[in-house]
Amino acid sequence: MCMFPDLAPPAAIILTSAEFSVDPAWVIFWFWAQWFRTEEPASLWLTSPSGLVCRKHQQYDCKWYIPLADLVFPSPEESEASPHVHPFPDHELEDMKMKISALKSEIQKEKANKGQSRAIERLKKKMFENEFLLLLNSPTIPFRIHNRNGKSYLFLLSSDYERSEWREAIQKLQKKDLQAFVLSSVELQVLTGSCFKLRTVHNIPVTSNKDDDESPGLYGFLHVIVHSAKGFKQSANLYCTLEVDSFGYFVSKAKTRVFRDTTEPKWDEEFEIELEGSQSLRILCYEKCYDKTKVNKDNNEIVDKIMGKGQIQLDPQTVETKNWHTDVIEMNGIKVEFSMKFTSRDMSLKRTPSKKQTGVFGVKISVVTKRERSKVPYIVRQCVEEVEKRGIEEVGIYRISGVATDIQALKAVFDANNKDILLMLSDMDINAIAGTLKLYFRELPEPLLTDRLYPAFMEGIALSDPAAKENCMMHLLRSLPDPNLITFLFLLEHLKRVAEKEPINKMSLHNLATVFGPTLLRPSEVESKAHLTSAADIWSHDVMAQVQVLLYYLQHPPISFAELKRNTLYFSTDV
Description:
Elements: E1 2-3, E2 14-15, E3 46-47, E4 60-61, E5 71-72, H1 90-112, H2 117-137, E6 141-147, E7 152-157, H3 160-174, H4 185-199, E8 218-230, E9 236-246, E10 249-255, E11 259-262, E12 266-278, E13 280-287, E14 295-296, E15 301-302, E16 305-313, H5 316-319, E17 325-331, E18 334-344, H6 345-348, H7 365-372, H8 378-390, H9 404-416, H10 421-427, H11 430-442, H12 454-461, H13 466-478, H14 482-499, H15 502-505, H16 509-521, H17 535-555, H18 561-567
Antiparallel strand pairs: 1-2, 3-4, 5-6, 6-7, 8-12, 8-18, 9-10, 9-11, 9-13, 13-16, 14-15, 17-18
Helix pairs in contact: 1-2, 1-17, 8-11, 9-11, 11-16, 12-13, 16-17
InterPro entries: Abr/Bcr (IPR037769), C2_dom (IPR000008), C2_domain_sf (IPR035892), PH_domain (IPR001849), Rho_GTPase_activation_prot (IPR008936), RhoGAP_dom (IPR000198)
Domain C2: 200-329
Protein name: Active breakpoint cluster region-related protein
């Protein structure tokens, strides 16, 4: 009997002894090298080196196994500190995404032009290889198992949801009357001989495995309101997180406040989540742990208890409406009520100048700085100061969505220049303050790096000669209006300081470039040809280039406004 937990992608195969002479049940962890990294590559079930996309004549080698009766999950107190697992560089992951998106675009063009099937298959093979590499190298969530008679193994999964699924699947099997055992060499040979047949049961969640008529997923922004939850048996400190999939794996995107000492939390918090070909939304409900002794030594994070989890498919016909769609996810006897609606990328990223020029949102940056008699807008300085004061070590700062209603409240206060701004900032959730800063730059009537220079930035970042690129990128900065340049350099230094805390906040320079690049560069008007390309094509070409531009400046040694002015003629431009 084979039991396959419903995972995406499946991290392991759990087998019982019904097909073999071993008595009683046992477990084999079979990790494909294409899917998941571990701290010890030798402790895997490895495919043969015949190629990632080779589907015939594959051979498997058994590296280790653990009987279910001997498998335990060490508690945070019992676990020992493990050697540091170096995450795969963010820029290499983004390069893979760029290649995958470009290959998707090429395949679609070949199909539209009725190209040769060989050419299409060759492109699909390349895309398949890159998607496998991305799935292998993207996971960062530690999952440790231990053989009570031997050693521990640490695996990296893509989300807390999957880690919970594996734990539950194993614990369910362990409820049977199990005994320890040792496999003979013959039994191991029989098992490994069955592996090719077993690996066909699951399809890995990559584009290459999808039919042509399957949905490519949603590109744009999903607005989600987490209303409330019922069904808890005793009072606890409760919160929810939201995960969505992108490129075959899931990423945590939002987190509600902790509702203290209750059985019926009522959050009523709205979040705006960016989707990149997403097809599923996951909601996880946690009990907050304040005991600092319960720290996961694999990533030095306090372990909160998952009370329930659930998942829904993002049906385009359901969510692509102007009205909110309300639903309930049931999880372990718990019911979480939420509402959602979807806004396409072209609609949600449209820059619209404010009709009210007395505020700051939707108003040209030169108008705001002139009115304030400042070099950097007050809203930028205050949000940056607050983030550096109490949010610079917040996990996922600028990536995790703040509560939309809090962000709108801060927007209204800044627009009205309310005297209570500082008091409100000090009491506000830090993710809402970070979200307000992002919203300010997103709603500028033209991007901070200007519409006029956008084509030149795209050309400059594509230059292959380092010296030519340096000259071009520095000249473009000198060509910015003073308020734009000074504000950009101010933000640049702030983001560098945030990235210095990457071991704690998990936000690298590349993560920050991914968050802010499109916000600072996206043109105010989409070119007329945009409607001819899919959302995925727009994302792959424009957004990736925008990320690379900001990353170039983030990785550059400190840039001084005075130095830029002194070394080269400055071409002023009215904003």
